[in-house]
Design a protein that fits this description.
Layout: E1 2-8, E2 10-13, E3 18-26, E4 31-39, E5 46-51, E6 57-59, E7 67-72, E8 77-82, E9 91-100, E10 106-110, E11 114-119
Parallel strand pairs: 2-11
Antiparallel strand pairs: 1-3, 3-8, 4-5, 4-9, 5-6, 7-8, 9-10, 9-11
């Protein structure tokens, strides 16, 4: 079993910065892609940023140039640095990890969620 534990988040004024972190623990055959999703009230959950095991990144258009995803494979952690925050970034943020639970199967695990509130 794998657990993802998130930290960071909170309340910040527009234009400010926050950093989210997520640490994976438990036994597995390895962690492939990791990422961050968010869900705002009344909206569907959306992918914010993803990073492959090799470090290739992708971002939602709405956060390009403002958010940076990174990971530390040795520590099984993924970070999301959020700069120039806007009110529309307000949401619950979830980290994810695609975990090889066996040699042939991968399961997506989710963190517990962290509230990010940006005041305008």
């Amino acid at each position: 079993q794998v657990q993802l534990v998130q930290s960071g988040g909170g309340l910040v004024q527009a234009g400010g910065s926050l950093r989210l972190s997520c640490a994976a623990s438990g036994s597995s055959f390895g962690i492939n892609a990791m990422g961050w999703y968010r869900q705002a009230p009344g909206k569907q959950r959306e992918l914010v940023a993803g990073i492959s095991g090799g470090g290739r990144t992708n971002y939602a258009d709405s956060v390009k140039g403002r958010f940076t995803i990174s990971r530390d494979n040795a520590k099984n952690t993924v970070l999301l640095q959020m700069n120039s925050l806007k009110a529309e970034d307000t949401a619950v943020y979830y980290c994810t990890a695609d975990v090889a639970v066996t040699i042939t199967s991968v399961t997506k695990y989710w963190g517990q969620g962290t509230q990010v509130t940006v005041s305008s």
